[in-house]
Design a protein that fits this description.
Number of helices: 2
Radius of gyration: 22 Å
Structural class: mainly beta
CATH architecture: 3 Solenoid
């Protein structure tokens, strides 16, 4: 037993030593850019103070590995896609306790801006913008077994065109908590449905998700042009806290909050929105286009802020607690 304990202690000591040896501290933007533009010699990066990149070179290979910002802010960082690198304009890194202010990405050919390795925690992008080619979504990789918590993306300056999925491609076995997306303008892909959060979600938990000030340009084209205001296909997905605030779009009779349900295990509670129905007849945005069961039998926290107006759809700040869409509404 003593030998086992000693061996275990040596193993822990060796692991800790290697982990410490792999950690690199970054103090300036020049160090940051030089490190990520060069050959990576460490898997863990620690930002030791606020960094201003105004006078620093452009980051050409993207951020990757694991970065702990320790609560610091990186300002005015510039990215440029590199066609010789598989990272290109991706921010492909685990991020913790970090703020990016006024970052600019020049997109050469990538479909998406972000790629996640495993987790983001306490991450903010303020006033993110892009030049070059438009993006078609924000997160390229499937969120499979990943965790995102306390994330804020303000993407007022990001170009988004022919969007099929605004945020995540697909969500599997994942937890997304306190996620806010602000200030996006996108054009929908004319011959395909558009999902705002994800086109598919399975065995996942989405808690306190907020989409604010989203403008969706382009006209729907029947079933293929429908808008999924939250998720497309859902299976055993639990949404607790969804806030859709100031979303503008042109309506289709095929629109819904959730599209297809593959089982009756999904739950939707504490859903808030100030979408109004741009049709004269209210009640045409179902919670699910193809529910697995009689969804009216489920008890759902559903609060809307609706007032009929003319298309394209805009929003009203008036709070009306009702069952506009045939959804049972209860007080908190």
């Amino acid at each position: 037993m003593q030998k086992l304990i000693t061996a275990f202690g040596l193993l822990i000591s060796s692991f800790s030593s290697n982990a410490m040896a792999d950690y690199i501290n970054i103090q300036t933007c020049d160090e940051l850019v030089s490190f990520f533009n060069g050959s990576i010699s460490s898997s863990y990066v620690s930002i030791t103070n606020d960094i201003d990149c105004t006078s620093s070179p452009t980051l050409e290979h993207g951020l990757r590995e694991s970065i702990n910002g320790n609560g610091h802010t990186i300002s005015n960082l510039r990215f440029k896609g590199d066609s010789s690198s598989r990272y290109k304009t991706f921010i492909s890194a685990n991020l913790t306790d970090i703020v990016f202010d006024n970052a600019t990405v020049h997109n050469t050919e990538e479909w998406a801006l972000f790629s996640i390795k495993a987790r983001w925690n306490n991450v903010k992008f303020n006033n993110l913008s892009s030049t070059g080619k438009p993006f078609k979504m924000l997160f390229w990789t499937n969120i499979n077994g990943f965790e995102l918590s306390d994330v804020l993306l303000d993407i007022a300056g990001v170009k988004l065109e022919e969007v099929k999925t605004l945020v995540f491609d697909k969500i599997f076995h994942a937890r997304v908590t306190n996620f806010t997306l602000e200030n996006a303008t996108l054009t929908r892909k004319s011959d395909w449905m558009t999902a705002l959060i994800s086109e598919r979600s399975e065995d996942s938990y989405l808690t306190n998700i907020k989409l604010y000030n989203i403008s969706i340009l382009g006209q729907p084209t029947g079933n293929n042009g429908r808008l999924d205001l939250a998720l497309g296909d859902v299976r055993n997905t639990h949404v607790n806290g969804l806030n859709l605030d100031n979303i503008s779009f042109s309506r289709s009779k095929e629109d819904s909050f959730f599209s297809y349900e593959y089982d009756d295990k999904s739950t939707y509670v504490n859903i808030y929105h100030n979408l109004f129905d741009d049709n004269k007849q209210a009640g045409n945005i179902p919670i699910s286009k193809s529910p697995r069961d009689n969804i009216n039998s489920r008890v759902i926290n559903f609060q809307s802020m609706n007032q009929p107006k003319l298309p394209p759809a805009i929003c009203s700040p008036y709070l009306l607690q009702d069952s506009y869409f045939g959804i049972k509404s209860i007080n908190n």
